[in-house]
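Sanity check record (used in CI):
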Amino acid sequence: MLNNKRVVVVLIAAMSFASVSYADEGTATYYTPPYVPSSCDGYQNEGVMIAAASDAIWDNKAACGRSYKVTCTGATNKGVPHPCTGQSVVVRIVDYCPPGCRGTIDLSQEAFSIIANPDAGKVNIQFHQ
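Expected output for EG45-like domain containing protein:
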């Protein structure tokens, strides 16, 4: 009976590790309206919970329409040492942030302000689809 309990405990532990999702790390910046036209949707207005993808996730336009959950993890500069609000935001990729883009994901100003103080300008993030 003891061996059966051990097997059950090992199986439960293995299943719990398998369900853990891992987030990518990067940086987020923000851009301001107007948000149209966009590289993905032209002049279609997709609201304000949107973002532009840098080359790191653009994938030759395959990122269009993907949704990402983004969470601020810390400051990138000393100007605002504690920028994070503790909240996350889900955004839809509607645009491309061209080479020279300062962040992995360029959030709309409204989305950025949910996760961080806009005065920071750029923050470290975790993100996943």
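The CA atoms of residues 27 and 124 lie 4 Å apart. If this sentence no longer matches the regenerated tokens, the check is flagged for review.
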